[in-house]
Amino acid sequence: MEVGPFRLGMRTLKTALAVMLCIILFKVFDRGAPMIAALAAVFSLRQDLTTSLTFGKSRILGNTLGGGLAIVYFLVKDLFSNDFLVELFLLPFLVIVVIVISDGMNNNSGIISAIATLLLISLSIPQGESFYFALSRVIDTFIGTFIGIGLNFFIRPKPVEEEHEIEEDLAELAKKEKELEELKQKINLKKQESDNAKK
Description:
Layout: E1 2-3, E2 6-7, H1 10-28, H2 35-44, H3 49-79, H4 84-104, H5 111-124, H6 131-154, H7 159-198
Antiparallel strand pairs: 1-2
Keywords: Cell membrane, Coiled coil, Membrane, Transmembrane, Transmembrane helix
Membrane topology: Multi-pass membrane protein
Transmembrane segments: 60-76, 83-102, 108-126
């Protein structure tokens, strides 16, 4: 459905449905706030199953890394009696670890989700909570990811909707290619200026 530049498409509806499923699931199983799962579902939901699976794999690696380091953070902070200095220095250090490990694993597309998972879990754990609370938040990210991927498995776009999504993807790709070309030109220009300065 389109009204001028505004469009209500299948992906929009699936995103809202993913959030709704997280809310219902967490209410039924009394898991507390569904914030982390709902965010994970939204991050994982892509225009089709293939893209969701590709992104989902990257997201699962990111969740595992971010969640694992959040548990390390929780244990170290607990060891130092919730000292502010641990938060101040350890958390930024763990962000560096996430980036270095993700890059080393060639999972650059999962860096943002890994950092988001690390920060969401680390900064949302109330003082005095147990290790199991932190572990539950890690599990929440997996629940949300599987809800996002599952929706794309069960609800597939109609051919017209799929064609429109492909057109949007191609337009986005063309935009990125243009930005890349402009960046290459700037680099070449700076290189020429540097070479001329050396002469």
